[in-house]
Write a structure and sequence with these properties.
about 475 residues; 17 helices; about 20% strand; binds calcium ion; binds ligand C2E; 5-stranded mixed sheet; 8-stranded mixed barrel
Length: about 475
């Protein structure tokens, strides 16, 4: 099922592509010459012999001029192969190349003589349709393209199934010529999102999704400028003593008109537009300030802070963190960075470099969302992290089937053998808490104990527990939550 998070990611990729295309397109126009020879080597894609991106830009511009003069319509179809990357990975680039050449032939066979096919790069192709009056004129051609993929590709004794997703935008109806490629691309992503192997025309719904992403970009800039962020803290509990051991700092955006916006909605946008270092820099410094404020009230607070994948490339991350730790008098052991398991895997080389730097600075790293994706246990052995954070989805199955319990048991044992601290997140039921405690999971976090709370509420929980512990022994955090 596609979640709203997936949709954001798709939209982000779409905007990235769109921006890149726009830049390339503008560059093409500015260096325009009166005439271009498509047969020229610089305008041909070396692999498929189709016109390349440059050639296509000229063709498009010329077609737009003809179209404006004659008062008719042109359409642009943006074609992206579905799941092409695994083919390269599984069968090798040689097979991938043959597929691209075959796709080029099939596309040329499916379109009319007056249409032009080009390869933009990778597994992306475009078709320019001229001499059309309406959507209906091109629908049968696009259907022919989709069905030309029904026949599997036979390469080196492999029978490879392939499909494509197509987005179409019309000029002049869907905007000016500069936006044509971006809009067709946006429609193509919608076709992917709706299940691939289909085509979609650009429409007002797609337009508003793209617009809302841009709006969030501007709003985020204002949020950074006007400091509209705050931190919420979700307590972590020691499974044996049930005492508070610290908290995870979770960012919140207090939008002036839309209210509180959760991080899942804006972090991917911030990452995409390159604001994440500024935002998370604020988070790290604010976490240090909170630990410092806690200390003034007699609380020894340990906090975990989430890091984004983009921050791996921030060469000042470790230096800045050390600077803030010193500035606010925070001992290094009071701060842990949580890094998503997927981010670590996708950027393993960068991740290892970062790990070494953190290790040298004595700062702890937790592998977040562990168990959400398939993993090999040996992988853990090779990563020098300090903590493993078992994902909520992983935990949610623990009291439902024996296999899940056995798997979590194995992971906890291995983690302990490697001297890692294990935290379970998203603990919602007493049954989950009891099983995790039985399996030796060190720390627990989840709605069963507390939702993320404000700094004042967190400090209050610490103080109440301390008072209660002195009087009656161990107790649970939820006893002290405000109604
Ligand atoms: P995460 O790091 O996996 O954080 C845990 C999320 O699960 C939090 O959502 C938390 O409120 C929620 N949660 C905690 N306990 C339970 C439970 O028992 N049941 C359920 N259903 N949910 C629970 P939140 O605060 O909306 O954060 C979502 C994600 O946003 C985080 O996932 C993290 O990836 C990201 N994020 C939050 N703060 C930051 C930040 O400062 N920087 C970066 N880069 N990412 C952040
Ligand atoms: Ca986290
Ligand atoms: Ca997590």
């Amino acid at each position: 099922m596609t979640t709203s998070y997936d949709i954001w990611l798709i939209l982000l990729s779409l905007l990235a592509l769109g921006s890149a295309i726009l830049v390339a397109f503008r560059a093409g126009i500015s260096s325009r010459q009166a005439h271009i020879d498509i047969g020229h080597i610089g305008y041909k894609d070396a692999l498929t012999k189709l016109p390349n991106r440059h050639a296509f830009q000229y063709q498009l511009e010329a077609a737009a001029k003809r179209c404006t003069r004659a008062g008719n319509t042109i359409a642009l179809a943006y074609i992206d192969l579905d799941h092409f990357k695994p083919i390269n990975d599984n069968f090798g680039h040689h097979v991938g190349d043959i597929i691209l050449i075959s796709v080029a032939r099939r596309l040329q066979a499916a379109v009319r003589g007056c249409d032009s096919v080009a390869r933009l790069g990778g597994d992306e192709f475009v078709v320019l349709f001229e001499e059309i009056k309406s959507k209906e004129d091109i629908t049968p051609i696009v259907e022919r393209i989709i069905s030309s993929f029904r026949e599997p590709f036979l390469i080196d004794r492999h029978q490879i199934e392939m499909s494509c997703s197509i987005g179409i935008a019309l000029y002049p109806y869907d905007g000016d010529i500069e936006k044509l490629m971006i809009n067709a691309d946006a429609a193509m992503y919608k076709a992917k999102e709706d299940g691939r192997n289909q085509f979609k025309f650009f429409d007002s719904e797609i337009e508003s999704e793209t617009d809302s992403l841009l709006e969030m970009q501007y709003d985020l800039l204002a949020a950074i400028e006007n400091n509209q962020f705050s931190l919420a803290f979700q307590p972590k509990i020691d499974s044996k003593t049930r005492l508070l051991v610290g908290a995870e700092a979770l960012i919140r955006w207090n939008h002036p008109t839309k209210g509180i916006i959760p991080p899942r909605e804006f972090i991917p946008v911030a990452e995409h537009f390159g604001f994440i270092n500024q935002i998370n820099g604020w988070v790290i410094e604010e976490a240090c300030r909170a630990i410092c404020r806690a200390k003034i009230q007699g609380i020894d607070l340990s906090l975990s802070v989430n890091l984004s994948r983009q921050q791996f490339r921030n060469t000042f991350l470790v230096e800045d963190t050390v600077k803030w730790l010193n500035q606010y008098g925070v001992p290094t052991q009071n701060l842990t960075f949580e890094i998503k398991e997927t981010a670590a895997i996708k950027n393993e080389a960068q991740f290892r470099l970062l790990l070494a730097k953190f290790k040298a600075a004595n700062i702890k790293i937790a592998l977040d969302d562990f168990g959400l994706h398939p993993f090999t246990l040996t992988y853990l052995q090779n990563l020098e992290v300090d903590e493993l954070k078992l994902d909520r989805i992983f935990i949610s199955k623990i009291d439902q089937d024996k296999a899940s319990k056995a798997l979590i048991d194995a992971v906890i044992r291995l983690a302990h053998a490697l001297s890692l601290n294990v935290v379970a997140e998203g603990v919602e039921t007493e049954a989950q808490r009891d099983l995790l405690t039985e399996l030796g999971c060190n720390h627990l976090q989840g709605y069963l104990f507390s939702e993320p709370v404000s700094e004042d509420q967190l400090f209050m929980q610490f103080k109440q527990l301390e008072i209660h512990f002195e009087a009656t022994g161990p107790s649970v955090v939820s006893d002290y939550q405000e109604a």
